Amino acid sequence: MGKGMKAGKKPKAKQPDIQKQLRQAMQMQNEMEKVQADLVNKETTTTAGGGAVEVTVNGAKEITKLVIDKDVVDPDDVEMLQDLIIAAVNEGMRQMDAIAEEEMSKVTGGFGGLGGGLGLGF
Fold first, then answer.
1. From CA 103, how far away is CA 13, in angstroms rounded?
2. What predicted TM-score, i.e. pTM, was given to this entire model?
3. Please, which residues have CB within 8 angstroms of residue 107's CB and are 6 or more apart in sequence?
């Protein structure tokens, strides 16, 4: 037994530096806010129907461009055109979610779910 130690007592474990952890959390939050702001400027473009419908979606999940090939416009088959638009928009949203998740994981170090509570929509 070491000098000055009483039987049954263990040395105190070093307490984590709370101030350091708070600074790190604040830094991560600032970085996440910057990534969120940068995501709004990102865009992804998807197509459906072999390119008959093209949709561009930005990081705010807004459609910024919609192109419909005139050959796909058939007044007797509006449902097909609707399906193509829905498919292209949904794929664009999925791609933007993937881009946002990838960008946020760079900040969070891959900790799952940290971006979800920040109003990022994913």
1. 37
2. 0.66
3. 28, 31, 32, 35
